[in-house]
Design goal:
Layout (H helix, E strand, L loop, with lengths): L2 H13 L2 H15 L18 H12 L4 E4 L5 E4 L3 H17 L9 H12 L31 H13 L5 H15 L32 H11 L3 H8 L6 E2 L8 E2 L10 H8 L3 E2 L8 E2 L6 E2 L1 H4 L8 H9 L1 H16 L20
Antiparallel strand pairs: 1-2, 3-4, 5-6, 6-7
The structure holds protoporphyrin IX containing FE (HEM).
The site of protoporphyrin IX containing FE has 24 residues, from helix 5, helix 9 and strand 3.
């Protein structure tokens, strides 16, 4: 049995509980009733908007958190979502994660985390551009940037959720999905604040703002310092690579970092330190391989243990999963909120995981 098969079975067994089964059924019905699908790569419509659209635009501009919908031109209702409404969105995503377990290692969770990170990781603190406020990856050119290859799977996974809860912006939805995926994959509690509004294609960020996996820590510092992170935070964020895998048809790299790619643990750090990594012999891009040949590390991952300032953090997180969870929750919250103009009275929501 291959390592991938073992980990897939392990992940499925770990995630399958009778409580979740209930969600799976209701979600299946919701999915079937989903109605019209919206395509995330859809170009923004030409402005032939009637007055109602301008009213809605004004509401969004006045502050996120409101959704205006109309049955006719006479009745206009303002819907202000509550914490319970956001928890419903969370539950819907969690139930779809449970239901659609035939993807990759048994879960869309990792690719949802990657979507939330790539939406946020374009932030530039000098120009205050990019970041999760806008969801501009829906449009070319940003959706077509090499770094975003494969994220259409995550965006499409969320379309039925958007159709069921049309009041939530794509930008709030993608981040909520990242939070949900982390918690459902047994990671730490990640506090969430809504308030992002969708922007049009004109707000797309230039290519090159996300890290290049073939490079070392000088490059990582350039990229992450631009967002406002320090060395410890870079190492804590990299621990997300306990999740998911590389795909030859996306980044060109291949394989998972850990044996349990759908469960968040500090295994990324323990493996990085304790395995003997050698350069893989293949005709793909340079990457590292363990002796079982089942696991991989990117040059950018491997560089962390060769860096004097970063290595001590790899060692700390390898020794202490609680410390990793505490620091990861803090840094991922900071990442997901980069550049978001929250209203001062925005309440933080702590979502209840479905496996609690
Ligand atoms: C430190 C710099 C980083 C580099 C160079 C990097 C690079 C990559 C690459 C090349 C892949 C494989 C994509 C594919 O082929 O599908 C990947 C996947 C992934 N990355 Fe990163 N990444 C970085 C940081 C992060 C951060 C900060 C997070 C989240 C907090 C993250 C979360 C993920 C996840 C969850 C996957 C798996 C996606 C899947 O299974 O489809 N990465 N990353």
């Amino acid at each position: 049995m291959s390592a991938a098969t073992v980990s897939r079975q392990f992940a499925r067994a770990a995630l399958r509980t009778s409580a979740r089964q209930t969600f799976a059924t209701s979600s299946l019905q919701a999915f079937r009733q989903g109605g019209r699908r919206f395509y995330s790569s859809e170009q923004p419509k030409k402005s032939s908007a009637g007055p109602l659209v301008y009213v809605a635009g004004a509401a969004v501009a006045a502050g996120a958190g409101y959704y205006l919908f109309t049955q006719s031109s006479v009745s206009t209702k303002v819907f202000t979502p509550t914490e319970t409404d956001y928890q419903k969105v969370y539950n819907e995503i969690a139930s779809r994660l449970e239901e659609k377990d035939d993807y990759d290692d048994g879960s869309y969770g990792p690719v949802l985390v990657r979507l939330a990170w790539h939406a946020s990781g374009t932030y530039d603190k000098e120009t205050r551009t990019g970041g999760s406020d806008g969801a501009t990856m829906r449009f070319a050119p940003e959706g077509d940037h090499g770094a975003n290859a494969g994220l259409k799977h995550a965006r499409d996974f969320l379309e039925p959720v958007k159709a069921k809860f049309p009041w939530i912006s794509y930008s709030d939805l993608w981040i909520l999905a990242g939070v949900c995926a982390i918690q459902e994959m047994q990671g730490p509690t990640v506090p969430y604040r809504p308030g992002r509004s969708d922007k049009d294609a004109a707000a797309c960020t230039p290519d090159g703002r996300l890290p290049d996996a073939a490079q070392g820590t000088d490059h990582l510092r350039n990229i992450f310092y631009r967002m406002g992170f320090n060395d410890q935070e870079i190492v804590a964020l990299a621990g997300a690579h306990a999740l998911g895998r590389c795909h030859t048809d996306r980044s060109g790299f291949e394989g998972p970092w850990t044996f349990s790619p759908t469960i968040l643990t500090n295994d990324y750090y323990t493996l990085l330190l304790n395995e003997k990594w050698h350069i893989r012999k293949w005709d793909g891009p340079q990457q590292y391989q363990d002796k079982t040949k089942g696991l991989m590390m990117l040059p950018a991952d491997y560089a962390l243990i060769g860096d004097k300032a970063m290595r001590p953090w790899v060692e700390k997180y390898a020794k202490d999963n609680d410390l990793f969870f505490k620091d990861f929750a803090a840094v991922v919250t900071k990442l997901f909120e980069l550049g978001v103009p929250f209203k001062p009275d925005t309440k933080t929501i702590i979502f209840k995981p479905t496996n609690a």
